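Quick note —
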Amino acid sequence: MVVTVTGAYGPSLGSYEQIVNEAARAFTVGGVDTRGLMIRQVWGARVLQGGRELPDCEANERWTFTLFPGEGLTEGLAESGTVLKGKVRFRLGKADRGIGSARAAPAIAV
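Predicted structure written out below.
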């Protein structure tokens, strides 16, 4: 079982590079570095269990997307997920893009 953030918006923690390069203590909960589970599978579970408040959906007051720093880069690009026009979409973007709409979903296995 995994515990993660819920709701329409995960925390804004910076760009993929900022998250990956930050000291582990900034992301450690109960002795576990939460970045390892910042992956699309956990984000997908948030979407499936989100009910009326889907994370990262254009229907929310603010549109956001969630970064997956637990997955590593793909050809130098950061992976992210969002919900646009009722469909789950995975995208690739600049790893140093630290805009406010970039979110994260810290998680730990329990």
